[in-house]
Write a structure and sequence with these properties.
It contains 19 helices and 12 strands. It is of the alpha+beta class. Bound molecules: protoporphyrin IX containing FE (HEM).
């Protein structure tokens, strides 16, 4: 039975600023220490407020399975993405938005995107192998690729749209989200220079998206229809027949563009990094891809089990998003405790993904673990969980699978730096400090189409 209201676990007594800074700068290292000292539930005081941090699959499950009406949205997300963005709304409005958008990210829809994902990937790979001796930053390459994929698949972007400009302004927005503005709401004010920089970047991005909306409306006036996400948002009507206003459409588009490309690019970069370090894994993956045949359709590639395990293991070992937060509207019973209304629950995805009780030798990259057993949704939750689970999870996994398969099959990748990569905070997400610097050569046609060696001495990659 849960204890009475305000029954909280033990936790550090250090000032909120200190706890926030330590978490933001080194989430995994800091939480390892906290878990070793306090266990799976930890009383926490960070700048945005007090709460309870949970670091076990069972406690995460309780949060994800709870009635979503227990929780309010996080103000930070509204400040960054706009108050109407699906990532920032809650209650009825959030349910309505998810109901509208979910079908675009599941089942047959994802299948219909695979050919486009593959085509865009092939085009980008041409540029990747064009200068075999040059050092390429994989995360920059992957960001350009994932942005083009999301523009073509979700928004069916008009070829007249200025994509290089779009890439620049989106990376400006992402780059302007520095730890200080994430940590403290008081700093998200015009007098704080980093926040002014974010607002300026967002204004440029809004103008770019507005142009996309105007272009589409003009097309609609000429009788053109497009069956994509922007078309859906423009056509949608509420119970009274009123359309979504442009500001709400813009918030959704910004959310999908930002949440949908940088995260996946980072995850792809980590997968390439680990394949380059683990020749045995690469060899096994190449054998699986080879067995699919030289002209395997993207549907078969996306379903390949070892490839899926490589994707999952990359997301597990280097989580792009380390935690998710739920703000309690009312007292929330959790394990042996009750989190008071107004406080938050911080679900430490990164701690569960590195929990040796679930993932023995958690720092070892071993995709086989995903073939040996099935994990519950709370045990393997790189995309969060419950009613807020990442809208684009299936999309991201399919995209990762196709891109990683193409690179493994067609390229020899060598790491340019001797030192291991480390994961550092980029903004809301974590990513490789140097961006995974590599040299890439196209595998010659003969090598790429013959079965890879069966031992671990495969060169490069
Ligand atoms: C490897 C890539 C990705 C990772 C690791 C990731 C991770 C996450 C996580 C952890 C959340 C929070 C879930 C929660 O609160 O429980 C989230 C939310 C979200 N993600 Fe992703 N994501 C990825 C790719 C994508 C893509 C490709 C899209 C869209 C095309 C997308 C769109 C969203 C949206 C709209 C939300 C907000 C959902 C809501 O609040 O209802 N994400 N993502």
């Amino acid at each position: 039975m849960p204890k009475l209201a305000s029954s909280l676990p033990r936790g550090p007594r250090t000032p909120a600023v200190w706890q926030t800074a330590r978490y933001l700068l080194d989430p995994r290292g800091y939480t390892r220490k906290l878990v070793a000292r306090y266990g799976d539930a930890i009383r926490t005081h960070v700048v945005p407020g007090r709460g309870v941090t949970v670091a076990s699959a069972e406690l995460s499950r309780q949060v994800f399975a709870a009635d979503p009406d227990n929780f309010a949205a996080l103000s930070l997300l509204g400040d960054l993405f706009g108050p109407a963005a699906v990532i920032a709304t809650s209650g009825r409005r959030h349910r309505r938005q998810r109901k509208l958008m979910n079908p675009r990210f599941h089942g047959a829809r994802i299948k219909s995107f695979l050919a486009t994902m593959q085509r865009v990937t092939d085009a980008h790979l041409q540029t990747l192998v064009a200068r075999p001796d040059a050092v390429v930053t994989m995360s920059a390459f992957a960001q350009a690729l994932t942005l083009d994929i999301i523009l073509e698949t979700i928004f069916g972007a008009d070829p007249r749209l200025d994509r290089p400009h779009g890439r620049t302004i989106l990376s400006d927005v992402v780059g302007a989200v520095v730890p200080a503005v994430i940590g403290a709401r008081i700093l998200r004010r015009p007098w704080f220079a980093p926040w002014r920089r974010f607002e300026a970047a967002r204004a440029r991005c809004d103008a770019w998206i507005d142009a996309m909306i105007a272009e589409r409306k003009a097309g609609a006036a000429r009788g053109e229809t497009r069956d994509d996400m922007l078309g859906l948002l423009l056509d949608t009507r509420d119970e009274d027949g009123a359309p979504m206003d442009d500001a709400e459409i813009r918030d959704q588009m910004l959310t999908l563009l930002v949440a949908g490309h940088e995260t996946t690019a980072t995850a792809i970069s980590w997968a390439v990094y680990y394949l380059a370090r683990e020749p045995q894994v690469l060899d096994k993956l190449r054998r699986e891809l080879h067995a699919l045949g030289p002209a395997a359709p993207p549907e078969s590639i996306a379903k390949a089990p070892y490839l899926a395990a490589v994707v999952s293991e990359s997301l597990r070992i280097e989580p792009v998003v380390t935690d998710v937060v739920r703000v309690c509207r009312k007292n929330f019973p959790l394990g042996d405790f009750v989190v008071p209304a107004g406080q938050s629950v911080f679900v430490l995805l990164c701690a569960v993904l590195a929990d040796p009780r679930l993932f023995p030798d958690p720092t070892v990259f071993r995709p086989e673990r995903f073939l040996e057993r099935t994990f519950t949704a709370a045990e393997f939750a790189p995309f969060g969980g419950g009613s807020r689970r990442c809208l684009g999870a299936a999309f991201a996994e399919a995209e990762m699978a196709l891109v990683v398969a193409s690179i493994a099959r067609d390229c020899d990748v060598t790491l340019a730096d001797g030192e291991p990569e480390v994961s550092v905070r980029k903004n809301l997400t974590m990513g490789p400090k140097r961006g995974v610097r590599v040299r890439v050569r196209r595998r010659d046609v003969q090598t790429a189409s013959s079965p890879p060696s069966t031992n671990s001495s495969t060169p490069a990659t």
